Amino acid sequence: MSVKDVLVVGGGISGTVAAIALAQKGVRVTLIEISPQWYGVGHGITVQGNALNAFRQIGALDRILEKAHPFTELRLCHADGHVITTVDTPRTGGLDLPPTMGALRSDLQTVLVDMVHELGVEVRLGTELKAFHNGATSVTAVLSDGSTKDYDLIVAADGIKSKTRAMLGITHDKKPTGLGIWRIVTARTPEMHSASVYHHGPEYKAGYTPISKDLCYAYVLTDPVRCDNSLTDAQEVKRLLAGYHGDFDFIRDNISDADVMSFQPIEWLFVDDQPWHVGRVIAIGDAVHACPPLIAQGAAQCCEDAILLADYVTADGDLAPLLEEYEERRKARVQVVVDASLQLAEWELHPDQPGIDTAGLMSGALDTLTQPA
What percent of the chain has pLDDT over 70? Predict the structure, then answer.
C-alpha cells in the first residue's frame, strides 16, 4: 500500500468521503476542518446517480436515502406553469440506482460525519493547514495550532476558496459566471415529486427539487449581486418568483422568513492545465474543479474524486505515477461537466442565440457520465 497515514484538509463532501474511503482501506486518517463547528449547510442539494454509486461504495447510501427523496425525471416548464417536455434522467450510477435524489445538505453531511467518527478518524476542528514541506518519503504538515506532523499524503479538500491551492503553485482561482442564485427550503405538495425547471420568465431560470416527503429545495437564477432594496430575504425571493406560476404559486405563497434561504454569486473553477499535486500533497474536489450547479454534478464529481483517489493511493507502487494517472483520468471526466455547465450558463445569460438545446446538452453530458469514473 502506497500510503498508511493521511491528513485530509476540509470537512465537506470531498473531505469526508475521502476520509471514509481511506479509513475503510486501513489507512490512518486525520481530518482537519477550519470551522470550530462541523455541520452541513442547511439548503437542499440535487445529487445524480454517480454520486449515489459512490455513497453505496462506502456504505452510506441506505442511511442517506432514509431522509432523501429519489426521483427519475426532469420536467422543463414554461414560466406560466405549463410543461414543455419531460426528460428521463440518465442513470449515471447504474440501472439499479435512482438516477437522481434530492436531499437536505445537512442530512447528507450528518451521515458522512457520523461515519467518519465511527471509523475512528481523528477529527480536529478549528484547525487549518498553514504550510507543508515535502520530503522523499513523507510530507510535514504545519497546522494553525502550531503543531507539526509527518504524513504519507496530504489531501486538500478545502473547497473553491482553498488556501492549499496557492501553496501548490496553482495559479487558477475562482471565476464569476455572471449569474447569482437564491436557494430556499420550503414546503411542497405531493404532486411535486420530481425536479422541475422553469424557463422564459423574468429571471434567468427558476426551479425546484423535492428533498423529502413534504419539502423542496427551490431556487431562482438572477444577477450575481443581491438587489439593494429594503426587502427581507423572503420578500426578495417572492418578488423574484412573482413571474413564475404552476407549482411556483404554491411555493411562493408558502415562503416565510423562517425558511432556510441564501444568496450567492455562482462561480466556477477548473484547473485543467496545471498539476493538482506537488510531491505528496494533492488537491481534489471543489479546490480544483467547482462547476456551476446547472447539471447537478458538483457533489458527484467530488465523490468520484475521493473514492478513486483512495483506490489509487492504497494500490501497490510508487506514489508519484499513481497520482499522475489519477489526475489524468479525473481531468478528462471533469472536463465533460465543466464544458456542459459553462455552456448552459452562457445560454442562460444569452437566451436569444440560435442553437440552444438545454435538454439535449444535459442529457448528452449525463449519458457520457454513465460510463465508470
Answer: 99
- pLDDT, average across residues 76-88: 94
Grid cell 498553514 is found at 130
The model carries a pTM of: 0.96
**Over the chain, what is the mean pLDDT?**
95
d(CA 23, CA 1): 13
Domains of the chain plus CATH, in order, are 5-44+105-174+270-368 (3.50.50.60)
Who's near 342: CB < 8 A, 6+ residues apart?
177, 268, 292
Q: Are 275 and 297 in contact (CB under 8 A)?
A: no
3-state SS track over the chain: CCCCEEEEECCCHHHHHHHHHHHHCCCEEEEEECCCCCCCCCCEEEEEHHHHHHHHHCCCHHHHHCCCEEECEEEEEECCCCEEEEEECCCCCCCCCCCEEEEEHHHHHHHHHHHHHHCCCEEEECCCEEEEEECCCCEEEEECCCCEEEECEEEECCCCCCCHHHHCCCCCCCEEEEEEEEEEEEECCCCCCCEEEEECCCCCEEEEEECCCCEEEEEEEECCCCCCCCCCHHHHHHHHCCCCCCHHHHHHHHCCCCCEEEEEEEEEEECCCCCCEECCEEECHHHCEECCCCCCCHHHHHHHHHHHHHHHHCCCCCHHHHHHHHHHHHHHHHHHHHHHHHHHHHHHHCCCCCCCCHHHHHHHHHHHCCCCC
Task: Note whether 172 and 165 are within 8 A (CB).
Answer: yes
pLDDT tens-digit readout, 227-282? 999 999 999 999 999 999 999 999 999 999 999 999 999 999 999 999 999 999 99
